User: Fold these one by one.
Assistant:
Number 1:
Amino acid sequence: MNAALRSFEAQWRARTPDALQPIREQAMQRFLKLGLPVQRDETWRYTDLRSLAAQSFATAACAFNGALADEPLSLVDAEQRASTVVLVNGCPPALASIPAIDGITINSIRELAKVDPSFVARFFEPASDDDQRRWVLLNTALFTDGLYLKISTAVSAPLVILHLSSGEADQAAHPRIIIDVLPGSSATIIEHHVTRGDAAPLSNSNTHISLGTDAQIEHYRVYAAGAGASQLDALDIHQCARSQCKQFTIGLGGSFIRSSLEAHLSQPGASLESYSLLVGHEDRHLDCVNIVTHAAPDTRSRQTARAIASDVSRVIFNSKVIVKAGAAHSDSQQSCRGLLLSPEAEIDTRPQLEIHADEVKCAHGATTGRLDPDMLFYLLSRGLDRETAQSLLVYAFLADVLSGMSVSSARSAIESALISQLPDSQLLRKFR
Amino acid sequence: MLEISDLSARVAGKEILTGVNLKVNAGEVHAIMGPNGSGKSTLAQVLAGREDYEVTRGSVTFEGRDLLSMRAEERARAGLFLGFQYPVEIPGVNNVYLLKAALNAKRKAAGEPEVDAYEFLALIRQKMKFMQMSEAFLSRGVNEGFSGGEKKRNEVLQMLVLEPKLAILDETDSGLDIDALKVVSTGVNSLRGPQRAVVLVTHYQRLLDYVIPDQVHVLSGGRIVKSGDKTLAQELERRGYDWVMESRVA
């Protein structure tokens, strides 16, 4: 047993059982039996966790002593958002301090579990051996508390959840969010992951989105941790009939990010659009896994990923579409494009398909390369200088994902943060 | 204006141009014709400054300057324009942005101030009307989702906005229906003038019914094997390229 596993087991033994104990127990036993994933595991082949496994982790404290200045953290203009809820190392604020928002009920998961454990248990996936879910098992066992959000009408202003990671590098936090969108309701939720201070705890977060019949969500997760930070984040999406999910995953912070998305299109007419914008910068390692399961007829999924890698960074995008037997007329597309901006950078993409039904439409494509020489020559031949032409093409590369964002201030804040990590950022700002 | 002597060039290690000689004076329109694979497009790309095309011999002067020592962007700013045979689609780069950036790059090189936004839009609208293009094209990505004919019209539109001294049009006529061909020809003819020159690279004589050339050259095996006036194009149309090759052997 490695040091990390031993320390997680010690944390497990030290904690006081709560209303979710049976679920936690099951998850922890499974986690201890399987251990941390290794590169032999299918979805971990590009990521080596050995140095992480050699470290010990203590529980990160809920307290944050610094000042929470709103401005530098904000992705959405104050007048445009419904509210911002700040979680420090996964711990929600005192609920009384959260302003009431029409159509959104916010609860502490722990408090809710005390009242109705079986209701809360519905939002926990059954313990699984799947290697992409290993860290979710640990989150289930050890999460201190989290937020349960119930959306019961059409809420137009976006709600921002600010995940603040603060403390020491030998600590770990397990933030947990449940978003329950009732039938016919809709919302925009932005999860923004940041760190404060020079060092930050390991963040192992999980978000569960449940979409009722005809429900809609636009969901963002923006990884913007400081240099040196490590983060594992898993998103589970369950979709009922005709529900629509538009999801943006934006990787532009931290040194190590492992991000996964598992979507279950469980009933006819469910539709998922997933956009990933993965920016490798300096020595960042960004490993992204998407698994989309079409489990019902007439379901639709679109995955669009754009990866840019500069310096000595590495970006990985693995996506898989599974069409279950009986899911006739499923329609899926996977498009991944990678752009290498330095000879030492690396991008690995692997689109996969697993089809068990007839009459389905599944398309996939993946390309990685440097700036297209034909495009570059075209711009040069019109008199643009080389630096401008190159920057313009990098900017254009990002446009596909950025243009899909409907929260304009978030789009512009994300765009600005992205640009600051690209070569010739001064020049790029001109095109905005 | 343009003087090419003994120009040879390689693409991916293969000799494509094998000693081209050509002189184009201001005010003239030249047509370069030839069978597929004769090196027509390579010549156009070499003149525009494509870097992966390696010049192995010869020289090119443009208005007395050594063209081959200039980078692609410098050639463009000096007044050379290439209309591409296959204009590339650049999603995410706005058409109108490119037009403005190109015009300003040229003006800056000439020591002129940047174009005023209002003045620029007025200019674009006028040229688009002339090219019978919908203004919807302006907000689209460069050539993005354009049909073959729309791409060619867009090339000519860019040419009209940039007003080059020397326009090299690489098979701008291919893939056009008769109406589009007339629009494109009107565009090219509007650029003719005593200070300018046009080189039309084409496979067919069709375009030359609308844009009457001063001289016609046949490129074959990487060099010009025959030159003449506009009647040469008609003769080629009637007798085919084999006729030139045979007469060359004879």
Number 2:
Amino acid sequence: MPPSIHPVDLVTALRHKHLTPAIVFLTSRRACDEAMETFDHADLVLPPVRQAAIGAALERVIAQYPSIAEHPLIPIVQRIGVAAHHAGHLPSWKIAIEELMRQGHLDAVFATTTLAAGVDFPARTVVITQSSIRKSRDFTDLTIGEVQQIAGRAGRRGKDYVGFAVITPSPYIDLNVLTKGLTGQPEAIDSQFTISYPMVLNLLKAHPHEHIQGILAKSFAQFQLNQRAELLERKLDLVQTQLEPFGPRVCTDWITQWQTFDHVRKRRPARHQTHRSDSPEIAARLSFLTPGRVVGLSKGRGIVLRQYRSKGQKNSMLTMLRPDGAVTECPVTSVREVYDRTYDCAEIPTYPWCSAETFDRLSEQLEELPPRLPILPILASPPAEPLPDAVVQSLGDFPCPTCSSRPACQKDFPTASRLRQEQHRHTKSIQALRTSLWHRFQERVEVLQTFGYLTPTTQLTADGEWARLIRIDHSLLITELIRADAFTGADPSLLTGVMASLAHDDDRPGAFPRISPGLSSLLRQVRKLAESLSPHEDPPLLRADVAALAERWVAEPTLTWIGLCRLTTMAEGDIYRLLARTIEFLSQLQTLKATHPGLADAAAEALALIRRGVLEELP
Amino acid sequence: MTTDELEQRLAQQPVALLHRLARGRIHRHFRAGKRRLIELLLQHSSHNRAGLESDLQALLEARHARSEPGEHRLHSPPPDTRKKAPQQPPLPATIESAVSLASWLEGIGVPAPQPFVPDPWQTEALSAVSETDVVISVPTGSGKTYVAVEAARRAMEDNRTVIYTSPLKALSNTKYTEFSRLFGSDKVGILTGDRQENGQAPLLIMTTEILRNLLYDAASGEIDIRLDTLGLVILDESQYLADPERGVVWEETIIFCPSQAKLLLLSASIGNPQDIADWLTSIRPTACRLVRHSKRTVPLRAGYLHPNGKLTPLFRSLGIPYGHPAQLHPEAKRLFLEYEEETLPSGRSRR
């Protein structure tokens, strides 16, 4: 038996049970496309009347969006009444399929789960084939909310008495996740508030610095933090009532008093002290016995690989590289001489404690050492005085030994000190919860001050005034590029290329056209800057290949959409999304007309050039 | 109940009950002995302890009710010590035979066209939105769009501007077409980063990011005429508030939304709509109204389709047993086990 049901069988079964129209959610775009291919020679042909109806409906959509007139899937859609709908398609194609679905012409649509929210059309039946979806890199189980979002597409109001969610297994499906998802309560949602640079600039433009904390307090993030803080406050109250019986005694702060007393009492030397410290001569050596140091032992020489303390050993231990590549352990006391010679040693946390290359190199260098080596003179500091007895003697200063409440203090101290620690912990966390957003804001402010977008008094500088208009991802990088004059004199196609590489955050591999030397050198500059900004802002992928694609589209106004698609293996829908995102980025540059007229004009020109063909069909 | 208490409690139960509890939770629970079973139950429910506890309670109560006429069992549970157990409908009886395929498939068909009558929650939401902010959390496909359309229509009749935002450009386009058809194309406009179509229309559609930018511009003095007459802001798919990358935009939009405009948040079912409503109440001039319900307008049934083409109901009951541990239909269970046997390398369990 095949691991999952054949698409043709699936549609047959659904039709047979009158469960059409259906949306079939599949794992990947590829699965959707392959499912469509299986219908190439299927004899599930629709009656001519319905075929004609689909044809007529398609005609109407094509009149509005001519770009899909030649779509390769049209024959199957019309003949069988099934279609694919995923992010690899053009938006206009998806609109067409949604329209056909709404009018009830299709029997099944194969869609991907990733865009369940974007699938805005209902059906009688939803077919679920997997229990996990791909998020960024790895697969994660569907949440209850997601399962319900998917299943929710089943059952059209006014057109069905009842909707069906049909699960059909594929390898690695977990039925548990799905049944739980169908029957359970959706998860609570949590705030994902982040403080971005443009947010800081825009807030400080509109409000004085001292008002900002109040504005941040209005966020859902703070609302939820407050909820947690209140929970802790309730716990804190409880702890405080528990602490009540341990109020002031003979001394007001008896807990601290007893703690100090107890501490000192315990430090009074018992019969003899067990010192695990090294003698001064040895201790002075320790700081020189670093990985890569050549030392002399009673027999031959060795190179230190690591220094460590071992539980059973009185002294610090060394791992040594000995001649013939042997790795041995010895206590530091067995080191006779420390030589004035060290080698580079790339340390790693596991045996043999240095990288393989280092190991080979060090072994060689050990063999080649001259017979005489300069000895490193090491000055031993005089032995440290034993702990002054002053503290111990001060025991007499404590009132505790003769105090009337001593027995009570002694008895209550463990409980009381535990409670007080808890109290401190809660107070601290409550404070952290209440102020964390503000601290994050301040961190951003400091970065913006160092870069010169804000004055030390948190006013916007001239640069800050225009930088606040760039409200997209990687805004710091973009504004820094503008300040570095990276785009001065750049023609629209280069600008488009750079913006595309900034906007594209997908690492799906593919084949792309060659990149022009101008763009490649500009991108090198961008990459360098992005790297230097990485402590303050996550660097974008900056893919040169997708940049080349966008550049080509703008540089060659005669290039058709089909021609552009032929240049790459990227899916049509992805190219569209890339260019649409680039448009968004460019339109932000366009707003800088007042301060950077040249750049704004180049962006406007680029926008005019991008907006043609398919990209003009939708606003 | 702490973990230890729960463990103790479980240990007191007969193993048969534990197996009942493990059904639908633990794969191949019948292979495990009592101690292992308890371990697995605790492990499995580590993120949803309350669910396990309430199921245990329900099972105990069911058993208690059966043994009531007889003598008091030795290990019968102590009277309900839990604080305010959520009132749950009685567990569907397990003895009752599972639903048949024929009756599961019954009722397919197209209802006769009926005049549209809004659901009570829709009316409630509509009357509330003229006075205050409203958060709507209802299952997908319940008719949120109807509320949005009617609210927009009413606001426009009062000569106020309405802004409708969606998370995706694709959805914006769909709504633009849909609303143009409903209200007339001169009444509806769409705003994107670089384009405006009919930008002075009373109903404006845009993505949430664009609205956020408008609000920032307004806050820093570049007054947009459209914000003066703004009467209603509809945020569709508000569950995007929890989106790791873009969620912050929804928060900014809500924080900076002018106070004279009413907010209408449309969201799919989420776990904590009350929190959202409380939050809005705490930052907006009027108290926010929460409209939620979990009942679907068109009932949903779940089925299982085996790769060999055999269709069976998924659950024992006809509908989906919301809020109950899933009781799989015996046929679906058998077929799925068969499927797992065949697809998994032999002798190796999935977990």
Number 3:
Amino acid sequence: MRDRIWIVAGLAVFVALITAPFWRARRDVGDLAKLPVLTLPANQTQCVAPVAYMRASHMKLLMAWRYQVVREDERKYVAFNGKVYQKNLTETCLGCHNKEQFCDRCHAYAGVPSPYCWSCHNQPQAGASAVSAAALQPQAQPAPGARRSPDRLLSRMSGWPVSPVPRRAQ
Amino acid sequence: MKITRKDFLRLTGLSFLAAGTIEATHAIAGRSAAQESAPRKETPSQTVRWGMVVDLRKCRKDSGCDACIQACDSAHNIPQFSNPKHQVKWIWTQPYETVFPFIQNGYAEQTDAGIQVPLMCNHCADPPCVRVCPTQATWKRADGIVMMDWHRCIGCRYCMAACPYGSRSFNWLDPRPHIPHINPDFPTRTKGVVEKCNFCEERLAQGQRPACVDACPEKALVFGNLADPNSEPRQLLRERFAVQREPELGTGPSVYYLV
Amino acid sequence: MFMFEKALEGSRRYWIWLFCVLAVIAVGFVFYMYQFNVGLGVTGMSRDVSWGLYIAQFTFFVGVAASAVMVVLPYYLHDYKAFGRITILGEFLAITAVIMCMLFIFVDLGQPARIFNMILHPTPWSLMFWDMISLGGYLLLNAVITLVTLTAEREEVAPPAWIKPIIILSIPWAVSIHTVTAFLYAGLPGRAFWLTAIMAPRFLAGAFCSGPALLILFCLILRKTTGFDAGQKAINALAVIVTYAMAINVFFILVEIFTTLYSRIPGDMAPLEYLYVGLDGNYHLVPWMWLSGLLAVFSLSLLLVPSWRGNRVLLPIACLAVFFSLWLDKGLGLIVGGFTPSPLDTITTYTPTLPEWSIVIGVWAIGALMITVFYKIALGVHEEIGEEEVHESVLVAGAAGR
């Protein structure tokens, strides 16, 4: 029975790991019993599809759009009510919805924070809702000396001269 | 001579096999033959093949004009890295001698000296990058544009090794902090994917010409449909002597240079 | 499970070694997380030299993996009994090397989370697809073969008959992995240094000397540390294989150099100039490539003389020389040479950075860990049945009697 301590410790680590998402959501969202409050678009009453569908399957719609636009050059979306939309995350979706007050809140609550859409796709210049312009220009110009850019850091780490030499250039 | 049932079946089987082999050979050979001829001739069904003609006589790169590069960079959120190892280039310039080493005759310094040639993806008819990509993250559209799917690219950089023109760039670092002004209408890229000139397919979809073409003050860049004999680039190619970059590789570049 | 319990008992020295290896792996992992977060910009790779040490190491270790065929083929096809004790070592080396290859590819990816796009969107016209198939298949074949033969050995029964065709299949498969890896490079237009039909044969020759050289070194280390004797006959036979393969490898390299230098086509010459004499004031890799060449000549002169080849001191030196000569040639020069000068005639120097080296050494350490555990298992099984044999007959005295 002298292994008991190891077994208990191992189990504790296992339980901690497997419940980690809940702890994290608690930290990020606060009271999990309270549903997230979403700010709905002020200028529109109808989304590109019925609310129930969007709530359950917006990711499927987005995946279909991205496939059709990028790979099939199909950019027009005819909605269920006959209205025609551009298949465009920044223009169409974020034209009405506010990322922080709509997408992020629900995603944080559901424990699927920040899908990688946002590492490339931008928020529109003038958002439909009240978000300051500063927040819409993410990391456009890092303040000088605020944080060492990884670029500089690693050129220091490698310490090698890097300029490419054009041959027969002159 | 009597043919037994067994012989008959054997012969039939062999004939089918032979016919199948011929069919397969035709299918394979026919396909590759079509690919080989593609650089020179469009297949009849291809009604659009986007292409570009660069008039080096008109281009003023030597006098410091970089309007096309500026236009492209801001339209496509091209990051500006100071470290040349990490640079991302869609359209850029390079000395004439390094771009067209085969035109050198050894005594042309007077005329060629200092000429800077604008370079971009050649949107090849038979692109080696498309051939090697293991996920079809880069592929050739019916209108000839070699596209990139930044959602799918795994960042293996095989396409960069395959491209004989050095037209592809990799996002060695997160590009966002290095983009002076983000154009919200075009996505930035994420670290770890390959990118290159897309012939402004997003502008073509709206009926506009590529940003570099519109930006050129000398109208040195001419864009149009190479499959249409009456298009502007085709007229220029009829009238003037034009070269492609390394045509001997059989890639069939869609970018032509008037020298 | 899988006789893994054999790896869990060992001397103090064994555990210290494992601990050291794990520490190196941990360092490599930390640096990988750094690379994962910041991007591949933490390496020395660039827009012009877009593949570096990772892909070069991948290429080199594909060769090591393929070299298992040099013990498997004589033993199973020619019934060469002397290789009986080391065949399993060769197969475990293959498994280790293939896993290392996969890791080297993985750490080279810009978007590693999307690696399954390779399977989700299978692309048969890409050589990368076939490399995945051949490496994965080779790993599977060798895993099945080692498991089945080792289990049979432990239970002291003949391996089941169905394993024989699988073993036979593994022989051409080994050739295929290195051929496909050569085709990755040899099929690209515009990279003159790689565009050569002799690349696959040259890869195989290089593999069949560097791999068995490593195996000889492992056998000698095992003799020192565990008392396991591979048998002098087996070692001698391996040394002959290394000699022939190295001679062929050097011949192939010279053939390449002749074709390029005598034809004097500038585009073809430039990479060779860059590697061996320097180009436009860039002598970055010149000392390393000459070291590789000198080691090749040195090792070959040791190996070609039978009495030196059989010498207990000179053989390991020759094997080390072979290994490092090939490591420099294939694990460094081949990839960088293919990218230099760039298509636009610029020379960008490539020097691996500290994070890059740490990650590479971390992957080596994972290899060392795997090979240690695998050999521990194999020798454990050997000892287990060996002890019983001692009980049964008094004949075996040499190995056990120290």
Number 4:
Amino acid sequence: MTVATRSPGTHGPRVRSGQKAPRRPVNWGRVVAWAALIVLLIVTIFPFYWMLRTSLSNNRALAAEAGSPLPADLTLGAFERVLGMATTEEALAEGGSGASVNFWLYLRNSIVVATVVTIGQVFFCAMAAYAFARLRWPGRDKVFFLFLTALMVPPIFTTLPNFILIRDLGLLNTFAGIVLPTLFMTPFAVFFLRQFFVGLSREIEEAAMIDGAGHARIFFRLIIPMAAAPITTLSILTYINAWNDYMWPLLVGQEENVRVLTVALGVFRSQTPQGSPDWAGLMAATLIAALPVMILFAVLGRRVVNSIGFSGIK
Amino acid sequence: MATQVVPKRAAKASGAVSGRRRRFGDLRVALVFLFPAALGFTVFYLWPTLRGFYLSLTEFSLLGDAEFVGLANFERLIGDPLFWNSLRVTVLYVVINIGVQTVVALALAVLMHRLTTSVTIRGLVLLPYLVANVVVALVWFWMLDYQLGVVNQILDWIGLGRISFFGSETWAIPTIALVNVWRHMGYTALLIFAGLQMIPKYVYEASAIDGASEWRMFWSVTLPLLRPIMALVLILSVIGSFQIFDTVAVTTSGGPVDATRVIYFYIFELAFERFDFGYAAAISVVLFLILGGVAIAQLRMLRAGESDLS
């Protein structure tokens, strides 16, 4: 950064006729670089804007104003439609399909699933990470290695047998069926937390032991508070992953009462008539599905951005 | 050390002598702490992995019992044009996806690294990655719509003519590959960015004093020092890329014809639409082997590059 402006800044200005205060000449390389970065940022942001713009449009007016950067015939109708707040006549009038959809319900289901998975997975993985990082027992490293090998198995490979298992347990179309496979552990979460637990200072722990604290007390009162930052990061990542998962809930949670947002979006898309799709409704629904994660990220995202790196891998 | 303090209670409970204590360490406590994760691991990772291999040797339609058929599924696979097609389509997808994504992400990472330290910009760049695949797929499905999609409006306006992005056999896979480049480029760029921050600043200062241009520095300093990181990023993204499913499932469902029937989608269809579980399991075994091979090959590359940064 400091380097980039160096050469023109020091040599350039003095050569020019000196009527004005010496001015830095434009560094064209930097201008081009900034332009490229801005173009990439626009490409990144534009689809989000377009999602918002379309969701605020009247579906009937979209065809006439397909290229307009502003919402076509601004209305909240699309949101009312997908949240089940519009009557069939209102929905049809704005180009909806008239089929009843209730994204409030799917929103609730997604919140239930993502919350339960996050709490269970992070807590149980923290316990396991404690056993791997802070306790000594025979075979520890071998077991840890076995856990890690699960990272190599492609998810679809375990998905088929897991589906059979969940079906045999009679848990199809229940929340339990959706959350169980990821509720207890993922290899990544154990690995991620163990890395941090290994690095914690032993002295405080020993002092607590001398004071007679047991392992449970040390885990809850010392380890968890000391590792609050990585635990928060992992929780955010787990929540987002659980929220965005599609294939598993598609297989085991088709029914409405447990249908999560991603599955609901797929259903909504396949129900929309081929000839005149309800684009505004579809975009309103995708916005509803995307918004909670974006809000979570806006509040806590700084931590996530800074934590992306190789700490979790190397 | 920790063991020295606790034994009193443990010794009373199990009557253990200190030698035994040393050998088993905190085993009892460890078992308690490990129990939930070990349960999850055994039931939902270890057991299904073994069962998956077994299933691949059976014929199983979800009803009744699995019938052992030996290697019949694998023999069938060799003569199945749809399987080979799915493999071809998947590889095509991976090549386009990873090729474009790596170049764009590298450019983005270097631009951010040389121009700004703003966390906000890095956060913006990460945004597409946070949104579900399904959401991303639908947004682009709309933006690339033949009739009303904004991209086709622009193409039409420029005079290039409309493109049936998801509807044509030639365009479908490149389109899906590029849509996923859009979702993943920011995340990949941040991984590379983390690698860039590991390159010491003085290397750049020194080469600037030697009169190197930014362009020159990129090719002679950044890229060579970044090689091990790039290898790691490639391993992760290639393996992830093979698992393309969500986007296909919500947009094209394998079509037009078989142009986007990628391997994940083919397995999914076989198992859950045609209830041909044994055959689906056999194809996932093959996928498992392919991914293992890819990982090993790439790890070799990584090891080859490791010396650079040390």
